[in-house]
Amino acid sequence: MICSFAEPEREGWTLIRREIDWNDPDVEHAREILLGTLLESFRENRAATDLEADIINEAEGLSDYILSQDSRTFCILAVSFMEDALKRRFAEKWSITSSADTDLYFGSNGPLSTFAQRLTVAKGIEWLTDVDLKQASILRKIRNHFAHNHRNHDIDRDPLVGLAESLNPLDKMLYNDRMDIYKEAYDAASKATVLRIRIYCTSLAIVSSMLNRSKLIAANLPAGMTDGTGFSSLTEVQQRFIDLTIRHSFRSLGITRTSSRTQVS
Fold first, then answer.
1. Average pLDDT in the 95-118 region?
2. pLDDT (tens digit, 9 = 90+) per residue, 15-29?
3. Which residue intervals of 47-148 are DSSP H helices?
4. CA–CA distance from 71 to each of 19, 192, 221 (Å)?
């Protein structure tokens, strides 16, 4: 394939016409250099920052706490965690540190004053994908219903059951014949337990996506970049949220041992 580029005509200049053969060895070498530069930058940014590690640690602590709570408290806290993580990321990346700036952005008249506004802006700057935004909006509706309706305490009843069921079934990611212990525990679990797993795992997935995409974008890297394939190719943020998702799912179903060698604590 031949691509032609023409320099604009300027006074005293001769029009220069260059042709690039995309199969030329020099072009291939340039691609390798560019890819190598991107991978080097990715690896430099792979480790979790202090803020990211703090948010992950909060997620782990919250997972332990909400397991014993009723569904109303569970959902309010699970979604509030996601909202707070997004607010903290905005404050970090946009250098919102002073009380005046905090009021400017997060105050009642600020562009980030509500959860819905933060989600919309995060989607606009590609911290969230279309799927992330849709799932987060569903979680926001569930949280708001529980927060503003004192009569409903159950996630497995209308109108909340329909919203919860419309989330991506992350609770079924481990439901297969290679994970019999999970499959058996899942089949024996109540509908409320299954939906609670789905809700918290969705919240974790959105926070993981938001933190990872914003990290890579700030480093001038593609938002979905990885270092190859498999678990080891992911960032520390992605890896730790995956492990937390597995841990929470197992503990929610009462699974404490996956084999004679592995203990889920």
1. 96
2. 555 676 767 787 888
3. 50-66, 71-93, 99-106, 115-124, 130-148
4. 65, 8, 39
Averaged over 112-136, what is the pLDDT?
97
Query: Which of 47, 70, 78 minimizes the C-alpha distance to 204?
Result: 78
Q: DSSP string spanning 127-185?
A: SS-HHHHHHHHHHHHHHHHHHH-TT---SSSTTHHHHHHTS--GGGTT-STT-HHHHHH
Tracing tokens 């911290």 back to the chain, one arrives at 127
Q: Both tokens of residue 162?
A: 């329909």
Question: Which tokens belong to 225?
Answer: 């970049």
Task: Give yes or no for a cis peptide into 25 (omega within 30° of 0).
Answer: no
The residue written with tokens 């569930």 in the block is 142
In this prediction, residue 130 has a pLDDT band, given cuts at 50, 70 and 90, of very high
Separation of alpha carbons 161 and 192, rounded Å: 9
Q: Rg of the chain over CA atoms, in angstroms?
A: 23
For residues 190-200, one letter each, b for 16 or more C-beta atoms within 10 angstroms of the residue's C-beta and e for the rest, the string is eebbbbbbbbb
Q: What is the DSSP letter of 217?
A: H
Helix (H, G, I), strand (E, B) or coil at 8: coil
Place of tokens 């029009």: 15
pLDDT in tens, 165-204: 999 999 999 998 889 999 999 999 999 999 999 999 999 9
Angstrom distances, CA of residue 21 to CA of 1, 15, 79, 88: 6, 20, 52, 47
Cα dihedral: 102, 136, 65, 69 (round 10): 120
Q: How far apart are CA 61 and CA 64, in angstroms?
A: 5
Mean pLDDT of 207-223: 96
